[in-house]
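User: Fold this, then the next.

Assistant: Folding the first:
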Amino acid sequence: MKKFVILLMLTALLAVAAASSAADKVSLPKGYERWEKSKEKVVNDKKSLFYGIHYIYVDKKAMKAYQAGGAYQEGSRFVVVFYNIKDEGGKPTRGKKNMVVLMEKNKKQQETGGWLFAGFNADGKPSGVDPVKNCFECHLKEAKATISKYADFK
């Protein structure tokens, strides 16, 4: 019985390690800068986790649903690039890039409502943010108020 419990614990640890290493293997899609790009969006509220200037890039799969207002197909992707706000003569302007976020429709990601979330540093390397605590929970709190619309791409 003791060996069984130890084996069960080891199996559980391996499963957790495999899941976390799979998350570490997520990378930014190559060429996302050539996808449809939103207009500049400025969020001036310093209390908002979306504070800054950002652009949203949407792949072809996601754009179809975006335009139609329907459900997103498996594999639909969004990349959001965040910049610091720099004040130039009282006007908010784009400063240094500070973060890049990937959202991909992925039914295996049950903890995050069927979406894979991944955060990256300005250089495109994984930032190590927790996709549930840092991405999904934030998204639930603030995205409805600040989420983009198809009109942001026209």
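Now the next one, as you asked:
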Amino acid sequence: MGEAGRDDVVVAGAGAIGLACALALLESGRSVRVIDAGRVGGGASHGNCGTITPSHAPPLAGPGMIGRALRWMLTPDAPLYVRPTLDTSVWWWMLHFARRCNDRDWRSSALAKSALLNDSRTRLADWIRHYGLDCEFAETGEDYVFRDAQAFEHGQHELALLRELGVPVDVIDGPAYEAQEPAVKPGVAGAIRFGGDAMLRPDRYVAELARVVRERGGVVVEHCALKGVRVGSNGIEIETETGVLRARDVVLALGAWSPRLADAVGVPALRRAIQPGKGYSITYSAPALVPRRPLMLRERSVCVTAWGSGFRLGSTMEFSGFDDTLNARRLGALERGAREYLHQPVGPEVRERWCGWRPMSRDDVPIVGAVPGRPGLWLATGHGMMGVGMSTGTGQMIADLLCGRAPDVDPAPFSVDRFG
């Protein structure tokens, strides 16, 4: 706590992004209080597949995506589903997303994402070692697996860009891959291996970040929802459901809640920039035969991750606003997809069926940096499906900016200014 009852830095959001920001700030000599409306890691950080993927630099908005999305609107269990709605904010976001489905914007977003993903990948391995984060981290690589020859060929179109961005890539033909990976069924057309990717158990990673933040003097307050922010000459006043806090700086790591709180925090651009993208996963006890590394079952867009502590099928992208119901058909699509590819597609015991919202920015690039005209207010949101994989780089960028240092990653592409 700073002078006269004022905190130095308040971070709103105790997911992977918020806690990584808190830890990097503590290491920079700042004192930090983290608040969250729920519990540590209770949002998108909890149930994702835990893959750390510089290979995922190409954005969702790419050439041909609009045609696929329109076809999939008629298929409720499709990998990408937009629920028909009269909500104008969804269609405004979709219109601007559609405008970016071209080669120039696709490449621009990929370059920005890659810089942060690559920085975070290296930094994450350093943090795991330095802080002793017990989260089943493994530098395994990741495989994209194809059963259709045409899809396998099409899947190689972006490899030149990925190699340019420093992503290690190996293309493996079907028979060779089947010999290497006994968990897959016969009939593989081919696979693409990204040897620099990694994996971890995301809920444990976030719990470990919270542990280290507390050990280094940070305060983490759960069930303390942010209600509003007022910037004044003597700092920032933060209204929460449990009272008022005052701080020198505030970092808004609000994830998918960013558009809902846009007016309350005085950053209306967040309403236009971000939509919640709903993802699903099912976690099981591990079957006897599991893949040796995380897999993306490419034609079905199903991710498969096996840790010592469990086995998870996940992915899908659903734009349905803030609907938090578990859609049995979309959960079923994960298992149906896995059955096409794997000898043992599910585990003997279901431990959790989950859905959560990812903060999808319309250009698929995070929003990180200062809020123009509101001194002391900072944003760290819009990471889409890459929050865990971009967490350490985002945390360091925020710490550098708050402390007046030049970040290792150019912050310009991440500014909220790009949304007007």
